[in-house]
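From the shared-data thread, chain only:
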Amino acid sequence: MNCNFVVFRTMPIIRFVREGRDVKCQFGENLREVALREGLELYGFKGKLGNCGGYGQCITCYVSVAEGQQDSLSPITDIEQTKLRGRPGNWRLACQAVVKTSAIVLTKPQSPPANVESLMDEALSKDLPK
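Structure, as tokens:
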């Protein structure tokens, strides 16, 4: 018996909290590339001057992943293990993170906006497709 079937997967959505934007992307797409493609400000001042182009060396493309959503991105890489030592456990380098499912992220968590808690609460209150 020949069983042919197609599995349809919903495109993941990255909810960028600071920017107030939901962005569709492909499964397996690099998070840094998603942000840059959409024209989002991923880098702070120093990162704009000297980012490494996505190789995990400059550690300027920090993002914070909403609590409980770390599995939405690829596992933390060896580069991140080294470069993020001493940083919060939910921080990632966007250049090293690959999208698996929808996620909520805060860009530039090292300088959060004054209303970050209310922005995060609002972002978490709206459903995301799995």
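The radius of gyration is 15 Å.
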